[in-house]
Amino acid sequence: MIPYGRQEISQQDIDAVVAVLRSDFLTQGPQVPAFEAALGEAVGAEHAVAVTSATAALHLACLALQVGPGDLVWTSDVTFVASANAALYCGADVDFVDIDPVSYNISVAALRDKLAAARSAGDRLPKVVIPVHLCGQSCAMREIYALGQEYGFAIVEDASHAIGGRYRDAPVGDCRYSNITVFSFHPVKIVTTGEGGAAVTADAELARRMQLLRTHGITREPQAMHTAPHGPWYYEQIELGFNFRMTDMQAALGRSQLTRLGEWVTARNRLADRYDERLQSLPVRCPVQSAEAISARHLYVIRVAAEAHAEVFAHLRRREIGVNLHYIPLHRQPYYAHTLGIRGEWPEADRYYAEAISIPLYHHLSEAQQDTVVAALAEVLG
């Protein structure tokens, strides 16, 4: 089976984890802040908070921005459910914005129209908008930021796919157009910590709140306590937080992996360009890249005619090619459509769902494996 995505673990990575196993720290020790520092340097962020998953990072980001009951959060209709679930964990409501037909990211035009319609009708405006950098390509963040200034919403970039990508000559994660950016380190992502995620920000207070909330809301900082410390053992729980701490084993793995981030993104882009060339003669639509962005190329999504979609997908699976679909639009999920009763129209998301297939792409995919994928597509598409 050629999977759609796969991690690579080197001897360097193994040695880094083994060193932690032989050390005094297994849970949150010195490797976590070292990983946070390396991550911040890699993505141009002043503050990084490592946690157990990107879902946890999204949850903490919403909490740090004081999302709660009565608030509204909007995100792209084509994303993994975690992008929306994070708002629900805070007691807020969610709604979805249709996607751009070219980039498959959140549509700036649809977002602008939805905001204007809500204001005109006297409806609630979002407190937070979560743009998702689908497949590794940045959303049009400058335009989204401008809308945030006009309509008063905060911005959390869901960059789970986009570590190593760039937007307007800066790394995704520098937060010049957002309050917080979130990354994922799941094994199918570009950099892995096994399971894990992080939130980065340029705002020291937001970082402080996320650090507090990832560890049960407990502080050992005297200036944050309600009373003077009783002794060196003393701590106080000052908020209701969570156990979202990353372990030192995970952090050591992530820190080792980050040293190869640049070469991996370069390899992914080379392979994606090779797909572009070899698929030209087939009736498939290849991804389009923005002139403003350099994609991290987490996924390579092709689109085929809707009437051939199921047949192409099944043929590739029969040929031991582990294609997938990223993602089923959120408005089609029973929990949102039926349990929460979210209603609306998202025509581009529906068209995308009827045509999209994620074909294998990872930095150590061989050219021979890639040619096998192209040949299988040629077989079924003629």
Condensed summary:
This protein is α/β, with parallel strands linked by helices.
Describe the structure.
This protein has 382 residues and is α/β, with parallel strands linked by helices. The chain has two domains: 2-260, Aspartate Aminotransferase, domain 2 (3-Layer(aba) Sandwich); 262-381, Aspartate Aminotransferase, domain 1, CATH 3.90.1150.10. The chain is 38% helix and 14% strand. It is built from 13 helices and 16 strands. Strand 3 (72-76), helix 4 (82-89) and strand 4 (93-97) form a beta-alpha-beta unit. Helix 1 (11-21) packs antiparallel against helix 8 (248-258) and helix 10 (309-318) crosses helix 13. The protein is globular, with a radius of gyration of 21 Å. The two termini are 23 Å apart. The relative contact order is 0.17. The model has no long low-confidence stretch (mean pLDDT 97).
